[in-house]
């Protein structure tokens, strides 16, 4: 019985399956965008919120990283409850990347259990890598590691 409880706990806490990944978010124009529309290219999804201290710390450097790597398809998705909060943060930090809004429950199905989280979706549409926590986007070795995930 003890081992059964351990197994059940492990399965409950395990990341979401890498197969048949589907996710949608809302872009700055209020349009729904589907991950399926990007199939055929690797995608870096980055989940954050303006109320999250590590997110607030890493977002300016990540924005610079995105500009330095225009060949990488990056979607930064705020999980703020209100787009105005996310927009205020973008304006305050002079972040130029497009503002996208996501739904917390749909995001959890991707295995996002904490913020910030970076999820790499392969060109085949499957989750290839999931990194929970902030990333030092200004560090060259870290940058190379992230690029190797693609």
Give the gist of this structure.
With 150 residues, this protein is of the alpha/beta class.
CATH superfamily: Glutaredoxin
E-strand count: 7
CATH topology: Glutaredoxin
Low-pLDDT ranges:
1-20
Mind summarizing the main beta sheet?
Answer: 5 strands, mixed
Helix content: 25-40%
Overall CATH class = Alpha Beta
Secondary-structure content class: alpha/beta
- Radius of gyration, CA atoms, in whole angstroms: 16 Å
Number of helices: 5
Mean pLDDT: 86
Hey, roughly how much beta strand do the residues contain? 15-25%
Q: Please indicate the count of domains.
A: 1
Distance between the termini: 41 Å
Going across the major beta sheet, what is the strand order? Answer: 5-4-3-6-7
What gross morphology would you assign?
globular
What is the chain-wise order of helices and strands? HEEEHEHEHEEH
Architecture (CATH level 2) name: 3-Layer(aba) Sandwich
How would you describe what is shown here?
- The chain is α/β, with parallel strands linked by helices and 150 residues long.
- The protein has a single domain, classed as 3-Layer(aba) Sandwich (Glutaredoxin).
- The protein is built from five helices and seven strands, in the order αβββαβαβαββα.
- The chain has helices spanning 2-13, 53-68, 83-93, 104-108, 140-149; strands at 24-26, 32-34, 43-48, 73-78, 100-101, 117-121, 127-132.
- The protein has a five-stranded mixed sheet with strand order 5-4-3-6-7, with helices on one face. The chain has a two-stranded antiparallel ribbon with strand order 1-2.
- The longest helix has 16 residues, at 53-68.
């Amino acid at each position: 019985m003890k081992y059964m409880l351990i197994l059940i706990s492990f399965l409950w806490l395990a990341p979401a399956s890498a197969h048949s990944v589907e996710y949608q978010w809302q872009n700055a124009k209020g349009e729904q965008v589907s991950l399926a529309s990007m199939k055929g290219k690797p995608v870096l999804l980055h989940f954050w919120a303006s109320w999250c201290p590590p997110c607030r710390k890493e977002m300016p450097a990540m924005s610079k990283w995105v500009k330095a790597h225009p060949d990488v398809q990056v979607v930064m998705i705020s999980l703020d409850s209100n787009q105005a909060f996310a927009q205020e943060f973008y304006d305050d930090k002079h972040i130029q990347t497009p503002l996208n809004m996501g739904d917390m429950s749909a995001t959890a199905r991707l295995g996002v259990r904490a913020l910030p989280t970076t999820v790499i979706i392969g060109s085949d549409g499957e989750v290839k890598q999931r990194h929970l926590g902030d990333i030092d986007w200004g560090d060259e070795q870290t940058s190379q590691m992230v690029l190797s995930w693609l």
